[in-house]
Specification:
This protein has 255 residues and is an alpha/beta fold. The protein has 10 helices and 6 strands, in the order ααβαααβααβαβαβαβ. The protein has a single domain, classed as Rossmann fold (3-Layer(aba) Sandwich). Helix content is 38%, strand content 15%. A 4-stranded parallel β-sheet has the order 1-6-5-2, with helices on both faces. Strands 3-4 form a two-stranded antiparallel sheet. Strand 5, helix 10 and strand 6 form a beta-alpha-beta unit. The chain binds zinc ion (ZN) (2 copies). The site of one zinc ion has 8 residues, from helix 2.
Length: 255
């Protein structure tokens, strides 16, 4: 009885909250300017418009902007990685601020607008036809407890809803904590993450023969995503593709 009686109350409360949301101006999590009325997201239209998207032409496989006939960025990816795609350069003021708000500012809702843009990326036809599930890059448990969520899992769920694909959020596990990669060289990064992941017990039957799409917020040298892709491949996945919101430029890229 109490439960039934409290339902209209809860509904009234959430309707009230939604109304307040519409009436009270909100600041953009990336630039602090007011978000336009009618924009239900946490990032303003101006910031989305200023996003520094990866320029064309892009490599058909790795999605990296190409300057020569042969793509050098593809060399970062092992042969079982079919394709990789990213929306924008990071750091780049706007993209970096949005990722920062999602990761460190507690702005979970930023994942929705990011996933909107990730969902619109163009893929080779075979990837669209074959992709079976989305797997987020796991955080170290201690970091996930501190943050309260894994930003890559939020992106994977938002993207899964748009692509109508299942998300396997606990498919990969960290076997150990790794140090922050920001100050490491590419070689140190590879060493830092080597053997840091495993497929969760019991996931091998689902993975067998599957084309999996790995999801992360940003790809820098690819060390973390390649370590995750290798773990999935070793556990039986046949092909892995990669999608991220941001991508760090490599040496020689014009940003
Ligand atoms: Zn803004
Ligand atoms: Zn390439």
């Amino acid at each position: 009885m109490t439960l039934i009686a409290s339902r209209p109350l809860a509904a009234a409360r959430s309707a009230g909250a939604a109304l307040l949301d519409l009436l009270l101006p909100r600041a953009c999590v990336a630039c602090d300017r007011l978000v336009e009325s009618g924009n239900r997201g946490v990032v303003c239209g101006r910031c989305w418009a200023r996003l520094h998207e990866l320029p064309h032409p892009r490599c058909e496989r790795c999605g990296h902007p190409m300057r020569r006939e042969r793509c050098a960025w593809c060399d970062l990816l092992p042969p079982f990685v079919r394709a990789a795609r990213s929306v924008c350069w990071i750091p780049g003021r706007t993209g970096g601020a949005i990722v920062h708000a999602l990761k460190y500012g507690g702005w979970r809702a930023a994942a929705e607008g990011m996933a909107d843009r990730m969902a619109r990326l163009a893929w080779p036809r075979d990837v669209i036809e074959e992709r079976a599930a989305l797997v987020p890059v796991p955080l170290a448990p201690v970091r996930e407890r501190e943050r309260g969520y894994n930003q890559s899992a939020l992106l994977a769920h938002a993207l899964g809803a748009r692509w109508h694909l299942p998300v396997w959020p606990r498919c990969l596990e960290r076997t150990r904590a790794t140090v922050s990669q920001t100050r490491l060289t590419p070689d140190q990064r590879r060493h830092n993450v080597s053997g840091a992941f495993r497929a969760a017990p019991g996931t091998a039957p689902r993975l067998r023969g599957a084309h999996i799409v790995l999801v992360d917020d940003v790809i820098t040298t690819g060390a973390t995503l390649v370590a995750c892709a290798t773990t999935l491949f070793d556990a039986g996945a046949r092909i892995i593709s990669i999608v991220t919101f941001g991508r760090a430029p490599a040496v020689g890229d014009r940003t």
